[in-house]
UniProtKB/TrEMBL annotation:
This is Putative lactosylceramide 4-alpha-galactosyltransferase-like. It comes from the Eukaryota. One of its GO terms (cellular component) is Golgi membrane. Its main location: Golgi. Residues 227-361 form the Alpha 1,4-glycosyltransferase domain. It comes from Penaeus vannamei. GO terms for molecular function: hexosyltransferase activity. It is a single-pass type II membrane protein. One of its GO terms (biological process) is glycosphingolipid biosynthetic process. The chain crosses the membrane at residues 15-38. Belongs to the glycosyltransferase 32 family. It is found in: Golgi apparatus membrane.
Amino acid sequence: MTICARIRYYTCHRLIAAVVISCLVTTSVLLVPLVSLLSRSIDASQVKYGYKLTYKTWLDHLCPRSQIRNAPAQQLKWEPPSAQTIFFMQTSCANALTAREACAVESFAHHHPDRPILLLMTSLTINHTNPVMQTLLQLPNFRAAYLDLDVVFSEEPLRTWHRDKNWLFVEKRAGMALSDASRSEILRRYGGTYTDLDAIALRPLPNGTNWLAEFYGGRVTAALSSFLPGHSLFQRVVDAIPRVFDPYACCSIGPDLVTAEMRHLCPDTFSSIVTEDLQGPAVCSDITVLPISNFYPINYEMGPRGFSQLLRSGTGQEFLKNTNAYSLHLFSSLTARDVLYLGGGSILEEVAKKYCPKVFKIQRSISDVI
């Protein structure tokens, strides 16, 4: 073989090798994202957020504006409630409460000075410069702690449900889904008394435990409830959450699920309890169902016309004189944007002035609205 022939021979083989390598590289580049996409398609939430997200990743998705990396020394720590604790949950990632939310917390601390009051937050930090938070932190029986979802959901079946991040499928409802699931799991594991952040206490809660409230539409709700740890109701609720969770529905793992499991616990009596006009407590299995009027003195079903009573001038004193309710529910999802100018003597103003006096005073010093 001549020198020229040898050059042509080796050049040809090099070209063939280069083409083969190029094809292999191109194929791998195309296949990797394709395989990744196919694996992610197993779960809709995984397409968007990836599979088996780490702690930091889910925190970044839930709380994208979190400043935890800038203030590591001030991070809150997880603290579970006890059976004696009255606890709240803030799942919006805010590092401070609104004046109305702070009023709710102070009102329960005011009526229960001998019980621990615990605020669990998905934010790892508190805004210590916020006046209403400064006021709450001075209450002797109040504490704020981190709502550590990895700890709360560390047991099955919610461990897998949390790992797969199905609650992030509809971002605007993620906080609501987390609140419903966390409340049920915390009550199951630790017990305690839970109340929503938009309920202002008007008097001390009922003695005893294993109670919840009647709700609208023939349902019951755990939005204000008290249970011993390990109760069968919340074991049933927690077991059902992965199966019935609907990210597009507001109440699939809230009052709808609690109601469904209550029906299983007392099938013969539950329908009569929620369809009759309850004037006093009713018993379902070992659970006490308290009348809707005990916690919802403003009629939710009346919509804006009903909630306008909260802000109407001159109605507060009459309400306080006549109500026998344990709490006043504000339904913040419907009323949060309604501004109340102080000085008119409305129901909300008079209730706040009487039962959260410290928050009311500080709020009035910085603003004429609440």
